């Protein structure tokens, strides 16, 4: 019996092999050791073309939580960023637990560049978990409420430390996401949950269900400069 592999399948296999080769080289980067420091514990496990990342903050509002991520590098990496899913059921404003995706601006196709590597990817995820990125919140009611609550807490803390830390809730956020509005959105989301729930368990269908991304506030911790370099963590 003979088996025939189509040309398109051969191309996919070739792309997957190239992606795996690049990922293997990235894993040799000595800078990866710098990711595990006194503010955050980082563990990396590779299984085929999927990388499992465990991030455990030692500071901030999410201290002692363990965030488990799955990074899929089989889709034309490094010319396209990896696909990321969260496997931990832990609330965070940048994580949409309905479609199991983590929202990291650095990995947005409009920002991503092939020169970036595994170190940059993990550093961006680490930054987003440690310091909420209010400029890249998924348009989900729970994420919005969480961002509002954390933003107000962060804002009041910054005011106590200094008159100006570069943090400010945007007027659009104050105007459009007040609690009465949030309650109305919550009711609408609950009505649509039943029709969406049956598709959420299939990872292959998650990417088509991404909610819109909204910018709730200006936050200097996550704004990329003209060279798209990663921001430095707040001391």
UniProtKB/TrEMBL annotation:
It comes from the Eukaryota. InterPro entries: UBC. PROSITE patterns: UBC_2. Residues 182-235 are annotated as: Disordered. Residues 18-175 form the UBC core domain. Residues 190-202 have a biased composition (Acidic residues). This is UBC core domain-containing protein.
């Amino acid at each position: 019996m003979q088996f025939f592999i189509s040309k398109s399948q051969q191309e996919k296999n070739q792309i997957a092999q190239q992606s795996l080769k690049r990922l293997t080289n990235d894993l040799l980067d000595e800078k990866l050791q710098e990711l595990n420091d006194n503010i955050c514990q980082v563990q990396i496990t590779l299984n085929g073309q999927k990388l499992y990342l465990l991030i455990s903050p030692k500071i901030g509002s999410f201290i002692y939580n363990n965030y488990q991520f799955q990074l899929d590098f089989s889709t034309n990496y490094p010319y396209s960023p990896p696909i990321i899913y969260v496997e931990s059921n832990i609330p965070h404003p940048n994580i949409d637990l309905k479609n199991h995706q983590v929202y990291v601006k650095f990995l947005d196709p409009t920002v991503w560049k092939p020169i970036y590597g595994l170190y940059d990817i993990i550093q961006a995820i680490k930054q987003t978990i440690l310091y909420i990125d209010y400029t890249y919140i998924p348009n989900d009611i729970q994420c919005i409420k969480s961002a509002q609550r954390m933003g107000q807490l962060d804002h009041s803390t910054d005011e106590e430390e200094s008159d100006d830390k570069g943090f400010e809730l945007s007027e659009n956020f104050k105007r459009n996401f007040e609690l009465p509005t949030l309650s109305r959105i919550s009711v609408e989301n609950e009505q649509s949950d039943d029709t969406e729930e049956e598709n959420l368990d299939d990872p292959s269908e998650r990417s088509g269900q991404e909610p819109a991304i909204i910018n709730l506030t200006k936050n200097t911790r996550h704004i990329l400069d003209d060279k798209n370099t990663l921001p430095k963590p707040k001391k």
